[in-house]
Design a protein that fits this description.
The chain has 3 helices and 26 strands.
């Protein structure tokens, strides 16, 4: 999410009238107070031990608004932050092992706009898919060491962008601008790219990174978006595979067939930012201060670290920039979440000083 830009729409963040009833109806969860005992959130089979600020950076680096997280098959955690454009030599992607130990950093080319980050295995090798917004306005495929396979810009063949937008490096916002936010992967080797801060379209690419088509776009009602920020292909057991889009400013998830036809909408969120699945669970980090888990029927089974009422009431976002007001076991602005192999959850928050929390699965 933008740190300081026109796209950080205050009406979106403060559009609490429609979300208030939803948040008020959230089920209670166990949230421990700060003590010497382990900090536990959740209930029943969905209980997690909370470890805030889990991975630690070397002193030479700083977190600069953490955005997204992903895990490779070895269990290593990848974190991307937005970064400061005036620090071009600072990396934007950081890698940690499954104990939180720093391994390496790279991605200076995304500094100042780092945003989306996903990992896919292709022919036995894993690759990072990265997108950046602000003045970067780009997306790329990298190997896990940070070497670039290809890098692209606005797909002008889609016909939805301003002239020369693929060459424009200004942080200029609008529905005819390109500000990509995240990816989803297709079984045929292709992928989907959400232009969540720009055109509000979902772009489809083939396995070679060639643009194929798009769907969505700005508007109200079925199949139209207001900040389609996160995207995932939901293949949980017992469900027909489908595309799920986090339609953030509409506070909903919209489901589509794999060819982009609208299916249905799931309501009841507070600025849902991203989505990922593990076994029968769908995790949805919400900028309104909680991480939601849904079962295979998309019924809410847990609201983790819920501090939505307090954060929603903070119209000036004072809490976001003041760590002394952060409560142990509570979230401020969850922006992305991903599962570890054992079902534990990593959460990246949209806060200037950065925060990545590990929710260690107990059940």
């Amino acid at each position: 999410m933008p740190s300081m830009s026109p796209s950080c729409n205050r009406r979106e963040f403060l559009a609490t009238a429609s979300a208030a009833a939803v948040l008020a109806g959230a089920p209670a969860v166990i949230t421990a107070h700060k003590t010497d005992k382990p900090l536990i959130v959740g209930e029943g089979e969905h209980r997690y031990e909370v470890h805030h600020d889990w991975p630690q950076l070397p002193d030479k680096y700083t977190w600069q608004t953490t955005h997204n997280v992903a895990v490779d098959r070895a269990g290593n955690l990848y974190v991307i932050h937005e970064g400061r454009f005036n620090q071009p030599d600072h990396p934007s992607i950081f890698v940690f092992d499954d104990t939180g130990r720093f391994i390496r950093a790279f991605g200076q080319q995304f500094q100042g706009g780092g945003h989306g980050l996903e990992i896919r295995e292709e022919g036995g090798q894993e690759f990072l898919y990265v997108c950046a917004y602000q003045m970067r306005k780009t997306f790329a495929k990298l190997d896990l060491r940070g070497e670039t396979v290809w890098q692209q810009y606005a797909p002008m063949e889609s016909g939805v962008y301003a002239p020369e937008e693929h060459k424009n490096r200004e942080a200029k916002w609008g529905r005819d601008r390109f500000m990509p936010t995240n990816f989803a992967f297709l079984d045929d080797g292709g992928f989907l790219l959400a232009d969540g801060y720009g055109s509000f379209y979902i772009h489809r690419y083939d396995q070679h990174g060639r643009w194929v088509s798009c769907f969505g776009g700005p508007g109200e009602g079925a199949g139209k978006f207001n900040t389609p920020h996160g995207i995932w292909v939901d293949k949980r057991p017992g469900r027909e595979p489908a595309i799920v889009v986090c339609d953030r400013a509409h506070h909903t998830l919209q489901y589509f067939s794999l060819d982009g036809q609208y299916l249905h909408t799931v309501q009841g969120f507070g600025l849902p930012a991203n989505a990922e699945t593990w076994q029968n669970l769908l995790v949805v980090p919400e900028l309104f201060a909680r991480v939601t888990l849904l079962n295979e029927r998309n019924e809410v089974v847990a609201r983790l670290g819920d501090d939505a009422e307090r954060i929603q009431a903070d119209s000036q976002r004072a809490i976001r920039g003041d760590r002394s007001q952060w409560h142990a076991g509570k979230f401020v602005h969850p922006h992305d979440a991903c599962f570890a192999r054992d079902g534990s959850i990593y959460v990246a928050e949209w806060v200037g000083t950065g925060r990545v929390t590990k929710l260690q699965r107990l059940a």
